[in-house]
């Protein structure tokens, strides 16, 4: 774009770039292979570590015979519980979930789950370390093992909390309204254990410089890794720097500090060399978290017209016996629909399995499948159209928190989604629509995800050429953070995009929260905006006090920056380029730092994004094959800062919804607890041929309360709603209700 047009569209505080489908600023680096991921980082003297994982679920390690491995030329170290350095508090000094998890750091002989780290082999080459790892002879003493979910339910225990809320909730009185209801649905829905599999597996490179540790680590939380590794090793946080400019996907799996990070640092210290440890694909199915299995009991009751009169949602979720982690599936049931009588509960089933963790829309993804399915069943029972059912029960305020929503455009999502989908053409009777051998069904579901925000800091510094360096210890998980922050900074400063450089992914930068919970932009962009405003104000001060500047002694409020030029608002011809001003002040640092945090709005409003998803499903009447040729998703997510990367996030979420509905399922051998499909050949995710047409509607929404940019998160809401919509469409196509994910053909024939 020419400078002239850019000026015409106005810069300064007026949005010129925000909202536009700007290409990724890091795109060229990525396609040229110049974006360095952890496994690409080369340092002199680098050696390679391979983790050895347990092959049983609960045992004591009697002995590990390392003779053959140690004898292999090129092997530098074989670390087991017998020779690993002792850590403060047995390696448990940093346990403070969710950032600090219960780790396996070779401090004792106990095995608590399948694929628990039990040794680390370090060698000159990756090949030798992998080969040596396979030469270890491990002798286990089997211990009594709890693997049965049904049996475990008997001793289920309440979690301490549910993402900051109480695990149980009650409003009104469910029992009498349940008993007196005109229509009732009572059903059990189950979701399986699932594993995130970002393209880039977890990886760490650890390098000691005396007592200082540099970690290149693929993480969603550089600051969290810095503090939890320091605590675990018993050193000061200032001694640890965590670097991570690019992340090849994460989805929650990289939100915590897992065992391999600390083990890599321990190995590097042991061999006195920089060590790289890349988690192998099958190792992703053990020590780095996963979505836990849930069993959800739903009771929904309505009056004759379909108004909800009682809702009960009881969740049992698996966790590890060594650590509680809760999938908060019933949280959305507290606020999604209007009903006076609502009770929810969460219970944990402790098993000898790995510790679960956040996986894209933890809670809302699994919970919305159950709730949206049950509501569909109630609509059928009441003889009400599923969309009409949702409109009847629309919640105008958050009835759990008893707060207004900061904004809610769900009605518009229903309306626009239904129109685009052609919902009105749906025959209300199930198993009536046919196309040759295909049974055709339409289903829908509501999408929702909280719009969170945490405190963050950022800095902005002018460079002599008139460009600005913006810095913040946040992350780009492939999501578009670099680009969106560049847009926000450029608009705030009145600069073209190319004059802004964003530096992130380093714990030495101004502090930012975990890039999880769909809150990166909501947390970090306001800090970037504030830092840029302050840096611009300092620059203007410099000009106003400079007798050589055409802006000398002009009142501050009369000055603006447009296209990299400072000028008078009332007479733009009067001014000078930023570079010309700075050239007269060589060596002067013009910079600012800002901290931005949620204010009173966090207590005054309930903040959520909403959406509506419509699915067309085709089921082969003989073979049970299930296809999803068409999805329509209408989402209201506040202000979308970048139409291209934002839509990509929503689309990616919807694809994952198809995956969750039809494909993903981690299978454990019930006898030994060993995952039997720990690879991407047998752990099914969709390929291109599995994904049909996806139409995405972003409903405009102005939210003055949610954060200064009015941007709700888009990372996770895309997966919610889709799963229920597909399950409901399968019912509509076939007349068969599948309450167990994934919905596979064997459940339909
Ligand atoms: Mo998300 S599951 O909080 O990375």
From TrEMBL:
Gene3D superfamilies according to UniProt: Aldehyde oxidase/xanthine dehydrogenase, a/b hammerhead (3.90.1170.50), Aldehyde oxidase/xanthine dehydrogenase, molybdopterin binding domain (3.30.365.10)
Keyword list, A-Z: Molybdenum, Oxidoreductase
Start and end residues of each Aldehyde oxidase/xanthine dehydrogenase a/b hammerhead domain: 32-144
InterPro entries assigned: Ald_Oxase/Xan_DH_a/b, Ald_Oxase/Xan_DH_a/b_sf, Ald_Oxase/xanthine_DH-like, AldOxase/xan_DH_MoCoBD1, AldOxase/xan_DH_MoCoBD2, AldOxase/xan_DH_Mopterin-bd_sf
Family annotation (SMART domains): Ald_Xan_dh_C
Gene name tied to this protein: yagR
Superkingdom, taxonomy of origin: Bacteria
Listed name of the protein: Acylaldehyde oxidase
Species: Caldimonas brevitalea
Pfam family, one: MoCoBD_1
One GO molecular-function entry: iron ion binding
Lineage: Bacteria, Pseudomonadati, Pseudomonadota, Betaproteobacteria, Burkholderiales
């Amino acid at each position: 774009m020419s400078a002239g047009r850019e000026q015409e569209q106005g810069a300064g505080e007026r949005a010129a770039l925000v909202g536009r489908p700007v290409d990724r600023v890091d795109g060229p680096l990525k396609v040229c292979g110049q974006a360095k991921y952890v496994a690409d980082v080369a340092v002199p003297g680098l050696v390679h570590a391979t983790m050895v994982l347990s092959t049983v679920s609960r045992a004591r390690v009697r002995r590990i015979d390392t003779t053959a491995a140690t004898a292999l030329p090129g092997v530098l170290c074989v670390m087991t519980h017998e020779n690993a350095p002792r850590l403060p508090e047995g390696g448990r000094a940093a346990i403070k979930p969710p950032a600090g998890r219960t780790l396996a750091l070779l401090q004792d002989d106990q095995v608590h789950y399948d694929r628990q780290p039990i040794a680390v082999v370090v060698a000159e080459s990756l090949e030798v370390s992998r080969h040596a790892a396979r030469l270890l002879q491990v002798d286990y003493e089997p211990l009594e093992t709890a693997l049965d979910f049904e049996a475990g339910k008997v001793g289920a225990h309440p979690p301490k909390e549910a993402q900051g809320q109480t695990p149980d909730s009650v409003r009104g009185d469910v029992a009498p309204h349940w008993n007196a209801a005109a229509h009732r649905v009572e059903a059990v829905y189950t979701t399986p254990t699932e594993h995130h599999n970002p393209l880039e597996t977890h990886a760490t490179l650890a390098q000691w410089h005396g007592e200082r540790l540099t970690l290149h680590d693929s993480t969603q939380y550089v600051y969290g890794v810095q503090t939890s590794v320091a605590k675990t090793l018993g050193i000061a946080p200032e001694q640890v720097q965590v670097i991570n400019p690019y992340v090849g996907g994460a989805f929650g799996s990289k939100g915590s500090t897992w065992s391999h990070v600390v083990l890599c640092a321990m190995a590097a210290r042991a061999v006195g060399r920089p060590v790289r440890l890349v988690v192998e694909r099958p190792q992703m199915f053990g020590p780095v978290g996963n979505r836990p299995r849930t069993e959800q009991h739903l009771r929904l009751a309505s009056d004759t017209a379909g108004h909800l009169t009682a809702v009960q949602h009881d969740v049992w979720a698996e966790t590890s016996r060594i650590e509680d982690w809760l999938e908060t599936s019933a949280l959305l049931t507290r606020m999604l629909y209007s009903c006076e009588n609502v009770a929810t509960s969460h219970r944990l089933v402790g098993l000898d399995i790995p510790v679960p963790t956040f996986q894209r829309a933890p809670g809302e993804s699994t919970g919305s499948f159950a709730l949206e399915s049950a509501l569909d069943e109630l609509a059928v029972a009441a003889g009400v159209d599923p969309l009409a059912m949702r409109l009847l029960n629309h919640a105008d305020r958050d009835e759990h928190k008893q707060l207004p929503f900061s904004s809610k455009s769900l009605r518009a999502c229903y309306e626009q989604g239904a129109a685009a989908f052609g919902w009105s053409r749906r025959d209300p009777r199930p198993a009536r629509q046919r196309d040759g051998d295909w049974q055709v069904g339409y289903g829908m579901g509501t999408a929702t995800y909280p719009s969170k925000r945490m405190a963050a800091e950022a800095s902005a510094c002018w460079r002599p050429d008139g460009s600005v360096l913006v810095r913040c210890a946040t992350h780009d998980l492939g999501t578009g953070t670099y680009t969106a922050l560049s847009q926000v900074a450029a608009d705030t400063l009145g600069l073209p995009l190319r004059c802004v450089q964003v530096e992130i992914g380093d714990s030495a930068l101004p502090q930012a929260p975990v890039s999880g919970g769909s809150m990166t932009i909501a947390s970090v962009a306001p800090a970037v905006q504030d830092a840029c405003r302050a840096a611009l104000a300092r620059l203007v001060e410099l000009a106003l006090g400079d007798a050589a500047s055409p802006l000398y002694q002009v009142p501050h409020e009369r000055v603006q920056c447009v296209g990299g030029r400072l000028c008078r608002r009332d007479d733009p011809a009067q001014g000078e380029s930023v570079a010309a001003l700075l050239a007269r002040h060589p060596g002067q640092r013009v910079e600012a730092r800002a901290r931005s945090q949620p204010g009173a709005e966090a207590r005054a409003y309930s903040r959520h994004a909403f959406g509506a998803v419509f699915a067309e499903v085709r089921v082969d009447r003989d073979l049970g094959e299930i296809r999803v040729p068409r999805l329509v998703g209408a989402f209201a997510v506040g202000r979308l800062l970048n139409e291209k990367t934002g839509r990509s996030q929503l689309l990616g979420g919807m694809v994952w919804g198809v995956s969750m509905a039809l494909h993903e399922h981690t299978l454990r051998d019930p006898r030994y607890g060993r995952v039997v499909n720990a690879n991407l050949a047998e752990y099914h995710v969709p390929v291109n041929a599995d994904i049909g047409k996806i139409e995405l509607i972003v409903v405009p929404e102005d939210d003055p309360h949610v954060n200064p940019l009015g941007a709700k998160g888009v990372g996770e809401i895309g997966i919610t709603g889709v799963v229920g919509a597909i399950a409901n469409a399968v019912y509509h196509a076939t007349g068969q209700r599948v309450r167990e994910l994934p919905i596979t053909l064997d459940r339909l024939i």
